[in-house]
Structures are given as structure tokens and as C-alpha cells.
């Protein structure tokens, strides 16, 4: 079983690349953003709670995120592997994910970070916000707040996974095909 964590700031192309990677490597794609939106759309208790944080551009607290993610993993008991998109985002989430996977006899195979300049990513998100209907993609201040949160809470995960020999950085700037080719080189080594 292969379990990959796909990192990158909002707008780095994780969702776009995940669509290709899940097909090519037969992985179950678990996007915390999609999981949050599903719970919000269906007005679940966890969805209502997550929305209060997302609307401010803040990260959803660990305990809420972890509950949603564990539920999704449990819904896919026959998966040949998972592609975690947007999770973990904090050291506490990484430890919780490790413990959860260990309880199922699994572990993280690798973490792959799509790296890109903040200004390029802000422009991407503002453009996406014109059609996505997502309020967190339509306000540059909220976007930059998400990046500050990422830098403070998520960036330290790089060291966590580097120490385990499981971290790979990939340039996320270029055409979709160019970034996909770079990711494929990494995935094929795993």
C-alpha cells in the first residue's frame, strides 16, 4: 500500500495534480477541502463548525479535521493507497495521522510538496475565486492569512518528514503537464 501526503499552499495545484496521480497510481484521493465542502454542503455538525473557521481564512482545528479524515479512510477499506491532499497541516495532525495509520498496519510512504511563489499563487486563487464561488478565494487578505497560517503551522512538517527520509520538493510552476511530469519522476521512485 502506498500512502502519499501532497503538500502545497492554497493554489499550488494540489487538486489538479491529485486528479492525475490518483488515476495513474490507483490511489484514493482524500482532499480535506473537498471533505470540508461536502460536510458544509450537507450541513453536518462538523461542517457547520469547520465553516466558521474557513470563512475567516483560518485553518480548521485539528480535532475536527482528524475526525473527518478518519471517517473518510474508514469508508475506503479496500483502497490500494491514499493520496492525502491538504492533510496533515500541523505537527499534531501528522502525529495523529501516523498513529491512525499505524492502528491499521499502514504508514506514510512519502510526502511531496508543490512549491511556488506566493505572489503567483495569490493571482491563481483570485482568478479561481471568480468562478469557484469560494469566499476564501476572493479576498487577497484572507488568502495571505492562509499563507501565514501555512508558514507558521504547515511548513514545520517539512522537517518532520525530512527527518524520516520521506520528503520530496517539486517545482509547482509551469504548465499542468510540466508539473505532472516532475511529480511522476518522484512517484515512480517510491
Task: Provide structural commentary.
It contains nine helices and five strands. The protein is α/β, with parallel strands linked by helices. The relative contact order is 0.20. Helices cover 58% and strands 14% of the residues. Strands 2-3-1-4-5 form a five-stranded parallel β-sheet, with helices on both faces.
List keywords for this structure.
190 residues, alpha/beta, five-stranded parallel sheet, globular
The biggest sheet amounts to: 5 strands, parallel
The Rg value, from CA coordinates, equals: 16 Å
Biggest β-sheet: strands ordered side by side in the sheet? 2-3-1-4-5
Oligomeric state of this protein: single chain
Strand content: 5-15%
Separate helix tally: 9
H-E order: EHEHHHEHEHHHEH
Outline the low-pLDDT stretches.
none
Share of helix, binned: 55-70%
Q: Would you count the extended β strands for me?
A: 5
- Which structural class is indicated by helix and strand composition? alpha/beta
Overall pLDDT: 90
| Measured distance between first and last alpha carbons | 11 Å
Bulk shape? globular
Please specify the SSE layout and strand pairing.
Blueprint: E1 2-7, H1 14-25, E2 28-31, H2 32-41, H3 45-54, H4 62-74, E3 81-85, H5 91-103, E4 110-115, H6 118-132, H7 140-154, H8 156-163, E5 167-171, H9 176-189
Parallel strand pairs: 1-3, 1-4, 2-3, 4-5
Helix pairs in contact: 1-9, 2-3, 4-5, 6-7
